[in-house]
């Protein structure tokens, strides 16, 4: 009999929180009105949409008008990158070499330079500074990496950007320079206040925060002009035309509110589980090598290389025994290429193909961690 499955892939998707579903349900049934209509029922829905926008803005420390609801993190990244670069077609942009494909793919349409990362999986700020030139209009660096969980020095990068902007102003160079961060993995555990981080654009994703899939947000600092991806009736400040997904926006805002309220307690709980996981691996599978910084890391992420193993085979065998884990980003799982994140931090292709990711979440317990290690040892044997 197959055991009750244990989920270790929270970086790929989180289950919908019951309170989030409850908040969404009226807008999937009785409160179905188009918020652009003028009768009172529709105006009530419009007010609820504004309240959701205000809730998101509260946690980002922004104005509600700076919050653009999207259909997920991928669209938010695309709107940020295409929106800036199409407005400045002769300019170039800079990305880190460990960005998610949702940022790397749209960036490839433009003159893009990559900043190197250290073997710890942390962006090399000196490398990033070196590839920014007088014609750079956008820098995009993720807040926390989806594969190895490393937390990037966004504040330090923002200080570099601010210094360059000040030097440009003195030199009479009026080309803007914006900092975008893909923060889709961050809200459960990290501060999102955009002024404290020093970012101009920020992408968020509902499916990573116990909210509905195909929901997200792009924060766009006031005064930044973007070219829209979708033209039409002018909703979302003209940046995302089309009748608003009210249920999705309500669900996203509710989910973000809950995870940000709970994040301090959840960080402590996750840290305990992560410490236990690493301790068990060190004692019982000492050949396993941890990838990425241990000190600047999301507390729910355990990413290891087991030399000589085949991660695809291991994942199948783990799944057969009820452990759902991953080899890397779920969005690129069908690719036959080794992980670009792992090769960027210096792993060989063979080592990258011997790596596993376990990501924990709201329903993970110490018993689950013990079961994961026991099962991993069994399949390796």
Query: Main sheet, how many strands, which sense, barrel?
Result: 7 strands, mixed
H/E order of the elements?
EHHEHEHEHEHEHEEHEEHEHHEH
Structural class comes to alpha/beta
Tertiary shape: globular
* Domains, number: 2
Helix share bin: 25-40%
Low-confidence stretches: none
**Distance separating the two termini:** 21 Å
Number of strands: 12
Give an account of the 3D structure:
A 7-stranded mixed β-sheet has the order 2-8-7-6-5-3-4, with helices on both faces. A 3-stranded antiparallel β-sheet has the order 9-10-12, covered by helices on one side. The mean pLDDT is 96. It is of the alpha/beta class and 381 residues long. It has 12 helices and 12 strands. It is globular. The chain folds into 2 domains: 6-15 and 263-380, Aspartate Aminotransferase, domain 1 (Alpha-Beta Complex), CATH 3.90.1150.10; 18-259, 3-Layer(aba) Sandwich (Aspartate Aminotransferase, domain 2). It has helices at residues 18-24, 40-60, 73-85, 101-107, 125-131, 154-171, 194-197, 246-284, 311-320, 340-344, 349-352, 366-380, and strands at 6-7, 67-70, 92-96, 111-115, 136-140, 178-182, 201-205, 216-220, 289-290, 301-305, 323-324, 355-359. α2 packs parallel to α8 (246-284) and α3 packs parallel to α4.
């Amino acid at each position: 009999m197959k055991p009750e499955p244990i989920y270790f892939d929270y970086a790929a998707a989180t289950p919908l929180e019951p309170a989030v579903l409850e908040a969404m349900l009226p807008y999937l049934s009785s409160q179905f009105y188009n918020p652009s209509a003028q009768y009172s029922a529709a105006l009530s829905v419009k007010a609820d949409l504004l309240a959701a926008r205000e809730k998101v803005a509260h946690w980002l420390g922004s104005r509600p008008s700076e919050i653009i609801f999207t259909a997920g993190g991928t669209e938010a990244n695309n709107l940020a990158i295409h929106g800036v670069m199409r407005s400045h077609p002769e300019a170039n942009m800079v990305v880190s070499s460990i960005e998610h494909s949702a940022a790397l793919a749209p960036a490839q349409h433009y003159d893009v330079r990559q900043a190197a990362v250290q073997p710890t999986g942390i962006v090399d700020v000196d490398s990033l500074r070196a590839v920014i030139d007088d014609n750079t209009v956008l820098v995009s660096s993720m807040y926390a990496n989806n594969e190895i969980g490393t937390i990037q020095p966004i504040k330090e990068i923002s200080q570099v950007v601010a210094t360059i902007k000040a030097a440009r102003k003195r030199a009479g160079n009026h080309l803007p320079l914006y900092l975008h961060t893909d923060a889709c993995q961050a809200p459960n555990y990290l501060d999102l206040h955009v002024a404290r981080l020093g970012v101009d654009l920020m992408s968020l994703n509902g499916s990573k925060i116990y909210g509905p899939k195909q929901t997200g947000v792009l924060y766009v600092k006031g005064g930044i002009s973007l070219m829209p991806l979708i033209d039409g009736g002018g909703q979302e400040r003209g940046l995302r035309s089309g009748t608003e997904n009210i249920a999705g926006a309500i669900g996203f805002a509710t989910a973000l509110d809950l995870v940000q309220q709970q994040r301090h307690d959840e960080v402590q709980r996750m840290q305990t589980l992560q410490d236990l996981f690493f301790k068990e691996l060190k004692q019982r599978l000492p050949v396993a090598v941890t990838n990425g910084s241990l000190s600047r890391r999301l507390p729910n992420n355990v990413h290891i290389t087991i030399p000589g193993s085949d991660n695809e085979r291991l994942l199948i065998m783990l799944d057969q025994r009820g452990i759902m884990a991953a080899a890397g980003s779920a969005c690129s799982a069908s690719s036959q290429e080794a992980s670009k994140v792992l090769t960027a931090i210096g792993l060989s292709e063979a080592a990258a193909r011997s790596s596993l990711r376990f990501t924990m979440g709201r329903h993970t317990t110490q018993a689950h961690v013990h079961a994961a290690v026991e099962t991993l040892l069994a399949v390796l044997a």
